[in-house]
Amino acid sequence: MSDKKSLLKNPRVIIFIVLLLGSIVAIHPGYTPGKGVTTNLNFGLELEGGSWLQIKLVGTLAQIDADSGKLVSGIVEPIIGAPIQITSNSLDVGGATNQSVTFTTSGTVNSSQLDYLGTVNVDKLSGNTTQVTISDISKQSLIVSYLSRALDAEVVPTSTQNGVTYEIRTSVTEQKLESLLEKVGGSIHKNEDGTSTYKEGVTTATRDLTKNILSDKLNSLGLKDIPVRTVGDQYILVDFAGIDLATAKEIAEKPGKFEIRIQTTGNETEHVLYGQSVVSVGIPTYHDQQWHTPFTLNDEGARTLQKVALQTGAIDNPESHYLIMYLDGVKIYGAPLSSSAAEKLRESPIYSWEASTGSDDAAKAEATALQVHLRAGALPVNVELVGSGHVDAGLGAQFKTAALITGFISLIGVAAVVYFKYRRPEILIPMVGTSTSEVIMLLGVAAIIGWQLDLASIAAIIATIGTGIDHLVIITDEVLHEGKLPPSKVFKSRVGKAFAIVLGAASTNVIALSPLVVMGFGTLKGFAITAIIGVFIGVIFARPVYAVVIKELLHVDENGSASITE
Amino acid sequence: MATGLAEILDNFVKSHNDRQLLALPLAILAVALIILLVSFVRTGSPVNLGMDFQGGTQISIETTDSPAVLEKMYSSYPISDARQSGSRVIMDFGVMDSNKQDQLEKDIMSRYSNVQIQQVGPTYGKTLQVQAIEALVISFIGMAIVVFLLFRTFVPSFAVILSAFSDIIIAAAFMKVAGIELSLGTLAALLMLIGFSVDSDILLTNKVLKRRGTVEDKVSKAIHTGITMTSTALAALASMYIVSNFSYLFMSSFTQITLLSQISIVLIAGLIADMMNTWLLNTGILRWYVMKPEFRGRYNR
After folding, report:
1. Which of B151, B228, B232 has the highest number of chain A CBs within 10 A, making it the mutation to test binding with A?
2. Sorting pLDDT into bands at 50, 70 and 90, what band is A256?
């Protein structure tokens, strides 16, 4: 009796029991009539039924340079349809704040054709020569407009430590990009080690934006529980529980409906334009004490907006004619025209707009949300469906039952081998008990962190049973030297020796599986994480307790009864 | 079984010299390497790559239609294989465009129940291939580093690593011969094997290098413990293999679980190879090393 008490005083045993009970509470097994057995465990799609899509974001990243003069010619000449001569150019002057470029041409120039490049000044010189000066211009914006026109894709520059990286939101080969740049006297930069900076992929920011747009869209459809996960920098994984594959594809591909309306009288509004008139949406910026989300309209959209603003009188009285944005019929933004915009609209349509939201953090968040909404569920980059899957709910249920039975039979198989080897229930019961507790604690961890158990995780759990017992066998054989339990002192040193082996073996197990945790394999991540958590639980909590328990049980037995037969 | 096998192995190890112990495992390793090499020369890959790594679509349905009927029915799609698996038929399709893919999925969903569909794009498959090789190499190097840190002597560490290497090669050659494709599941099994196969080698090396006693005695003890360990692991895996493959024979509502079946069979093959490699190959090298005259019996008393 005194031995049993001392067992319960051992801090390791107490921690073990607390954790075990905690796990059972976390798993929260229960039985509801009609519903069957219920738990807090989350099961993956394979076991619950549903579908998933794996999406690759198509894009190109590169650091590039070009000749600014040739860039201006390369951009302007196709627009005005005539050759130009550059007469002055401050673009390559480092650190100059107000950079500008001036050129002359014999063609006709309409300033609105070029005003997306900067502030345009057109002067008629003698004869049929026109002099054009574009100020507030930068080489970066020139590269962006040149490439986006040539490749018909959005180009987004981002500053990094090594210079500006351009993200081209389409797939373009290195040769094609190189030859496009050659035309404007440019090239793709090399890294310090001589490799090219050209790389397939998108920036982390773009990946996250795409993820947010997808989540947003799925949530707006009332599908709250759809997890959207990013895998590496180029892949996004979307799980649709309980939805079949065809529906899932439809949901992911269908854009939302974005609309801008204008206030006419009182609460009445009039349609201005739909989402397809918005050609690009920029990253929110802070200037003039306000957060702004920039966006660009196409020709039709810009002209319609001008026409409606004139008709409704918004130009004369902006305050009573708010512009209101809706996504899928829900109001997401409303503001009046700024006085400067109203003045400009009198003369010509405006292509580049900015929606201001205010100055505080909430305004920043609103600007970011607007960036997502303006795209109306259209993703910023082209995507390619690289993987998909579907499991019927009925099949998932079968998998679940079969997996449960597999685990149970594995445990019985292992117990049979152990019994055959030792033929002593005092060893068999703690061994199987320890192994079962390890599984319960593993499931407890899964329930607490909300881990989704899939078939791969279940395979990992079963493998954990097998190897967990391995380590218990090492401890048992080490302690039970020739079938006899040694005195306490020797016992301690033997347990220590056994743990030297167990820890060595456990660390190779963890190291060998860790590449799977870091790498982007969807299912295998679950497998590896489950197996690694299993190893840790076993080594830290369960196996030391086994050593203590087996000592006490065998000790009691050796003193109390004569059941030792070896 | 466990005790009997341990006795046989123990006697075998005692009655043969180091060179004789190495002969069988090295011969089998050589055969396994040749199998992988021939496959590599012929197909460009040492093992057969499954859908996960090549791209394509795998559809598994519950049906009473025979695979032949289904193969005919879906002949307008790039179907490459249809096979029976219990009450289910598994069909493999090559890469097709998204319209065709949608059409096929809709057709299958409207006709059959308990459907499972898995699709992988060819470019993603390529990416996965590269990652798979990286994962195997990193995992193996990581294991080798841990083993070196544990023993800090070259020959014993090398023996452990060689034995683990041989386990992986033999398991891979087994996959090739048995026609098991490299899928994400079997890749996981190979990685797991890297970690688990060294358990018994660590046990052996630890006992021989760090304990007192005669080498013969220490090896013998290690064999008894090691065989028990491997048999318990095999018992768990064999149960997993049997249930995942044959449960439908007992209960018709059950289904084969390919992932579990693949993981378990590859691990079983690897662990059987591991018994040979640990107790012949690793033991042979280790015993030769510790009995070298320069140690003057340091490890043998």
Report:
1. B232
2. low
Report yes or no: A364 at the B interface, CB cutoff 8 Å.
no
Q: Measure in Å the smallest separation between the Cα of A518 and chain B Cα atoms.
A: 9
Q: How many CA atoms does the CB half-sphere of B253 hold within 13 Å? A: 9
pTM higher than 0.95 for the full model? no
Q: What is the DSSP string of A487-552?
A: PHHHHHHHHHHHHHHHHHHHHHHHHHHHHHHHS--HHHHHHHHHHHHHHHHIIIIIHHHHHHHHHH
Residues of chain A with pLDDT > 70, as a percent, come to 92
Would you state the structure tokens that stand for residue B132, as one six-digit string?
């798979």
DSSP state of B45: S
Residue numbers of A between 435 and 494 with CB closer than 8 Å to B: 455-456, 458-459, 462-463, 465-467, 469-471, 473-474, 477-478
Asked if residue A272 lies in contact with residue A323, where contact means CB atoms within 8 angstroms, the answer is yes
CA-wise closest residue to B295 among B156, B158, B159: B156
User: Which of the following CATH numbers is that of domain A2-49+392-560: 1.20.1640.10, 1.10.10.10, 3.30.200.20, 1.20.920.10?
Assistant: 1.20.1640.10
- Is B243 within 8 Å of chain A by CB? yes
A327 token code pair: 């996504």
Give yes or no for A507 touching B (CB within 8 A): yes
User: What is the SS3 assignment for A80-137?
Assistant: HCCCEEEEEECCCCCCCCCCEEEEEECCCCCHHHHCCCCEEEEEECCCCCEEEEEECC
Map out the domains of chain A as residue ranges. 2-49+392-560, 62-199, 260-360
Residue type, B83: R
d(CA B144, CA B151): 11
The answer to whether the Cβ–Cβ distance between A402 and B239 falls below 8 Å is no
Q: Which amino acid makes up residue A462?
A: I
Distance of residue B68 Cα from the nearest chain A Cα, in angstroms: 23
Q: Is A160 helix (H, G, I), strand (E, B) or coil?
A: strand
Kindly report, residue by residue over A106-141, the tens digit of the pLDDT: 887 777 677 777 788 888 877 778 888 888 888 888
ipTM: 0.87
pLDDT at residue A566 tops 50: no
- Nearest CA to B159 out of B208, B214, B193 is that of B208
> How many Cβ pairs closer than 8 A exist between chain A and B?
248
Q: Kindly state the helix (H) or strand (E) to which residue A43 belongs, with its residue range.
A: strand A42-43
- Return the biggest CA–CA distance within chain A: 122
Residue whose entry in the numeric block shows the structure tokens 């002597």? B153
CA distance B155 to chain A (A): 18
Q: Do residue B102 and residue A246 have CB atoms under 8 angstroms apart?
A: yes
Tell if the CB–CB gap between B196 and A509 is shorter than 8 Å.
Answer: yes
For A317-344, what is each residue's pLDDT tens digit? 888 888 888 877 778 888 888 888 888 8
- The whole-number pLDDT of residue B5 equals 86
Please answer whether residues B82 and B70 qualify as being in contact, where contact means their C-beta atoms are separated by less than 8 angstroms.
Answer: yes
Phi, psi of A254 (to 5 degrees): -75, 120
Side chain identity at residue A367, one-letter code: A
Q: H helices within A230-356, ranges in order? A: 245-253, 299-312, 339-347
Distance (Å) from the alpha carbon of A558 to chain B's nearest alpha carbon: 23
Q: Taking CB atoms and an 8 Å cutoff, what residues of chain B touch A201?
A: none
* Domains detected in chain B: 2-50+124-295 (1.20.1640.10), 56-119 (3.30.70)
**Residues B73-111: b if buried by 16+ CB within 10 A, e if exposed:** ebeebebeebeeeebbbbbbbebbeeeebeebbeebbee
Q: Are strands A330-335 and A50-58 parallel, antiparallel or unpaired?
A: unpaired
Cα A1 from Cα A557, distance rounded (Å): 12
A164 bridge partner residues:
A159
